[in-house]
Model the fold of this input.
Amino acid sequence: MRYLLVLFFAFQLFSTSAIGQEYKYHDVKPGETVYSIAKSYNISEEAIYKYNPDARNGIEVSSKLVIPIGEAEASAERSEDVSFKTHKVARKETLYSLSKQYEVSIEDIKRYNPHLYSAELRTGEEIRIPVGGREKAPAAPERRTDADIKNQITDTREHVVIPKETKYGIARKYGLTVKELEALNPKVDILQPGIMLRVGTKVLDQPVILTDNNFEFYEVQPKETLFSLSRRFEVEQDSLIALNPALEDGLKTGMVLKVPNKGQGFGNLSTSETEELNDPDRLEEEAMASTRLDLRNTISNRKTKEIAFMLPFNLHKIESDSIEHYKSAIQNERILRLSLDFYGGALLAIEEAKELGISTMAKAYDTRQNAGEVVNIINTNNFDDVDAVIGPFLQSSTEAAAARLESRRIPVISPLSNRSMRPFDNLFQSRPTDNMLQDAMLEYFEENAGNRNIVIIADGQAYQIKERLRSIFPSAPVITPSNGNISASKLNESLVEGRENWVILESSSVGVLSSATSALNRLARDREITLLTTDKNSTYDNFNISNDHLARLKLHYPSVDREYNREVSEEFLEEYIEKYGVEPNQYAVRGYDLTLDILLRLASAKDLYDSFEDHRGYTEYNENKFFYTERAEGGYHNQAIYIMRLNEDLTLSTVE
Done:
C-alpha cells in the first residue's frame, strides 16, 4: 500500500510539473493487447513500452499499465493510418531483406514487432509488416558541443522521477552526462519515484531509457567496434542502433549503451549508472594483449625442467636400421619430415635456454599418429615429474594425452592443430583456429574500412562468411561468380575512382581466384585497389594464381605466423644452419619459438599455470607470438594473430 501511495504521489507531482505530462492506470481486460490498448488511447505501442518495459514480454488480464495521457495528442499528429500484412519468416531472410522487399524501414518492422529489438528473426515465425502508411520519423537530435551543454546547465528545470527511470535515462533525455546530472543533484544517491531532480532545460527528442531483466548497460571500451559488440551481445547491429539511436552518429569510446541482457554479466555498468566496471578482468585482458613481455628478464625458477615431446615419427614404418632406409623414409614420409623439423627447432631452443641458465631434461616419444599409442606411452612411462608435454600433432592424440594427464595438472601443448578441441583444464592450444583467424580479420575490416569503397566477391561455398561481411557492410555490392569465373565488367561497375577500393575475396576455387585477381590486376592500372581475404587457403599457392598479381594488389590476410626478419633472427639462423646445414622452414621455426616460450614461462614462475598469472602479456619470437587466454569451458587458447600484407617486392610485412 505504501508503494502505491508513493506512485500516486509521483504521478500527481508529475502532472503539475513543467513537463505537463499526465498518466493513468489501465486495467488489462480479456482479449486486449498492447496494440489495441495503444489504439484506444490514441498513443503508440512504444509509448506504452516506454513506461511499462515488462509489457514487451506480454501482458496479463487484470495487470495494470501506466498510460501517458499527455502523449496522445502528439502521437496523433505524428501518425498516419497503418495497415499490416502478416509475413511468415523464411530461411535466410533478414530484417534488411524484408525492409527491401516491403519498402519499409527496419525500424518500422521492429516498432510493430517489439521482440525484435532484443531477439533475432526465427525461421517460421510470423511478424507484422506495416503497409499503406507509416509513422513519420522524429526529428534528428540536435548536435551540441560539450561547451554548449555546460553553458546550458546554468539554466535548469525540474523533473519528477517516474517508476523504473534511471539516472542514465534521465541524463540522456536532457542531454547531460550522468556525472553532470549527479552534480546538479548532489544529495540524491538512489532514485525513487516522486523525487524531484534538477535537469537541463532542453529535452532531446529521445525516449527515456529504462532497464529491466531483458536489458543492461555497457560502457564502450577503446578499440571496440559495432561489429565486435554485436558479436559480444549476440544481437544484430541494427538492433543495437535501435536501442541506442545515438549510434547513428557513430560509435565512440565511453558511450553507455543499452544492450540485451544475456544473463552472463557482460554489462559493465551497475544499476546506479556509476562508471565503475563490473568486469575488470576483461579490460585487463584487452590491455595485456597489447603488452609485450621479454621473459628472459623474469627467470627465477632454476629447477631442471622436464619436457616430454610426443611426435608422430612413425619409426615403425621403417623396415630396417640402415642409413639408406632412414634417408628414404625422410624423403618420402611427410609426417616424419615435419616431426624432425619441429624437433630440430625444439632442440635448438633447449640449447638457447641452457645458455640462459635453464637446464632441461627432454624425452621424445613416437606417437605413431595413434591415440591408443599415446595412452600406452603415458601408462608405461613415469610422467610424475614432467613439467609440460609438447605435442602430439593430431587432435585425437592431443585430446587423449590431455585426458590422461588432466588429473595430474600436467600441461599438454598442442603445437600445430588448428581445430577446436574438447575442453580440458590442462590443454593449451598454441595455434589459433580458423574461426579465430576469420574473426580477427573481420575486426580489422570494421576498424579500418573508413571511407573506402568495399566490394565483396564470394562463391557459394563461402556463404557463411559472405553473410557476416554483409552484416558489417550492408551497402557493399556482392559479386557472385558465374560458371566459376568473375566478370571483369561486373568488377569494373563496382569500383570507384578517387577512393581506395577494398575488394574482399572469399573462395577456394582456382577459377574464381585466378579470374578475379587477373581482372583486378588490370583494373588497378587506373584505380587504387587492395585485395583482402579472411582465408588465405592453399588455393592461393596454385600455379594458376600469379604471385605478382597478388603482390600488386597488396593482398591482406590473417596469419598465425609472420616472415622472420633476418636481421632480428640472425643468430638463430646462423646456429640452425651450422647445426643442420640448411635454413629452417616454418615447422623448425615454430618448434624453436614454441619450445623456448614454454621453457621461459616455466623458468619465470612455479609452473606454467602460475606464469600466466604472474606475467600478463604476449610473447614474440622469430615468426610466432603467443597470448594465451583461459577458456570458460576449460583449457587455454593462443589468441595472438598477425594481419599480413604481401608487398610488391614479394616480401611480407605485418599490418598489426
In short: Residues 83-131 form a domain with the Membrane-bound Lytic Murein Transglycosylase D; Chain A fold (CATH 3.10.350.10). The longest helix spans residues 334-355.
